[in-house]
């Protein structure tokens, strides 16, 4: 579900036009620390909006490496209180 939020662009789903955070749109921007900070901010907001009842986001780390972004999301599942880490790479 986190992956769907990350890689869905707002406006892509007709019945939920604000769903997603549009990470794919940032791929064509110059890779920089500013891009990583912007991506981190967008992801945090989207996960809070769409998944706050299911998970509690502990940390989001975005590393820019060459022509890709590595996104690491550390979160706690509210129902079980288990902490989990999910990592995604975009190129």
CATH structural architecture: Roll
Number of helices: 2
β-strand amount: 25-35%
SSE ordering: HHEEE
Q: What's the N-to-C terminus distance?
A: 20 Å
The profile of the biggest β sheet is: 3 strands, antiparallel
Spans of at least 5 consecutive residues whose pLDDT stays below 50 are none
Residue share in helix = 25-40%
- Quick one: how many beta strands? 3
CATH topology: Nuclear Transport Factor 2, Chain: A
Secondary-structure-based class equals: alpha+beta
Highest-level CATH class: Alpha Beta
Average pLDDT works out at 87
Which value, in Å, is the CA radius of gyration? 13 Å
Give the overall silhouette: globular
Query: If strands are numbered along the chain, what order do they take across the biggest sheet?
Result: 1-2-3
Number of domains: 1
Q: What report would you give on this structure?
A:
This protein has 91 residues and is of the alpha+beta class. The protein has a single domain, classed as Nuclear Transport Factor 2, Chain: A (Roll), CATH 3.10.450.40. 27% of the residues lie in helices and 32% in strands. The chain contains two helices and three strands. The chain has helices spanning 2-7, 33-51, and strands at 55-65, 68-77, 83-90. It has a three-stranded antiparallel sheet, with helices on one face. The protein is globular. The mean pLDDT is 87.
């Amino acid at each position: 579900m986190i992956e769907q939020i990350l890689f869905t662009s707002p406006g892509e789903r007709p019945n939920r036009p604000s769903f997603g955070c549009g990470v794919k749109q940032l791929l064509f921007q110059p890779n920089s620390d500013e891009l990583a900070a912007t991506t981190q901010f967008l992801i945090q907001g989207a996960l809070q909006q769409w998944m706050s009842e299911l998970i509690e986001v502990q940390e989001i780390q975005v590393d820019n490496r060459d022509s890709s972004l590595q996104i690491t999301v550390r979160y706690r599942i509210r129902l079980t209180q288990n902490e989990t880490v999910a990592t995604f790479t975009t190129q």
